[in-house]
Amino acid sequence: MTVRFEELAWRPTPLGEISLRRRRDPRLDLDVYEVKLDDEFLMSSLFTAGEVELARLGLAPLVGSRLDVAVGGLGLGYTARTVLADDRVSSLVVVEAVEDVIDWHRRGLLPFAAGLATDPRTRLVRADFFARVAGGDGLDPDDPGRRFHAVLLDVDHSPRHPLHPSHAPFYTSDGLRRLARNLHPAGVFALWSDDPPDPDFEAALAEVFPTHRSHVVRFANPLTGGESANTVYLAQAPA
To answer: Beta strand 67-72 with 148-153: parallel, antiparallel or unpaired?
Structure first.
C-alpha cells in the first residue's frame, strides 16, 4: 500500500526551511513531489511545462553542436533534464545554492530525474548564482571567466518577487550586463517567471540585448480544472 504522504528531506537554510515531500494524489492516481521553502510552495512535479519550455526555448535559437549550457537553480531537475535531452549539448553546469537540493538528486530521491546527476556531461555546483554573476568570476568556479552558449535561470518567483532581497539587483540593466559577460556571441539568456510579462523587466532586457521576447507558456491545471501560465523571457546577445 502506497504511503499517502512522506517528507523525504528537510533542512534549515539561509533562505528558510526547505523541504522535499511526496504525496499520493488519489484523484489523479499519481505521486506528486513538492518543494517548500518555509510555508511557500516553490515547485511541484504537477506543474513542469514552464521549466521544460525554459530549456526548449532557450536552446532553440542556437546553431551548431557542442553547446555549453549553464542552468541556475536545480530544483526537481526538469530544466536540466530537458537540456540533456538535446544531443547538441556537450556540457551542463548547474549552479544551485542549496546543498540539500543537490543531495536529493545524488541520493536518487527523485525517480523521474534518474540519470541527471550521473550524466557525464553534468556538473552540479554548490554556489549562489547571483553572487557568481555579481562577482564577475563567472558561473564555473573551476574555470573563471568561462562563457556559455546558453544561461537558463529558474530560482525566483519572478523579477518582482525574488526569494531574497540580494537577488533584486540582478534584474536591473546593470545586473543583466554582468550576466551577458557569461555568454558567447549570439548566446542566449532565458528566465522562468511565475508572473505575466513585466514591462519594466522587458525594458531592462532591451537595454542589454538587441533581441528579446517574452513567451507565455500556458498549461492545464489539474487542481483547478482550468488553465495556468508562466512566462519565459528569452534574450540573445549580439553575434
So the answer is: parallel
Residue 1 in this model has a pLDDT that exceeds 70 = no
The Cα angle at residue 135 between residues 235 and 209, in degrees rounded to 5: 15
Class of domain 47-236: alpha beta
Query: Is the torsion defined by CA of 109, 190, 145, 169 positive or negative?
Result: negative
DSSP label at 197? P
Question: Whole-angstrom Cα distance, residue 198 to residue 64?
Answer: 32
Compute CA distances 78 → 46, 48, 74, 170, 181, whole Å.
11, 7, 8, 23, 26
> How distant, in Å, are the alpha carbons of 30, 165, 217, 227 from that of 52?
20, 27, 10, 17
**For residues 114 and 108, is the Cβ–Cβ distance under 8 A?**
yes
Q: pLDDT tier at 224 (50, 70, 90 boundaries)?
A: confident
pTM for this entry: 0.94
Q: Which sequence spans correspond to the domains of the chain? A: 47-236
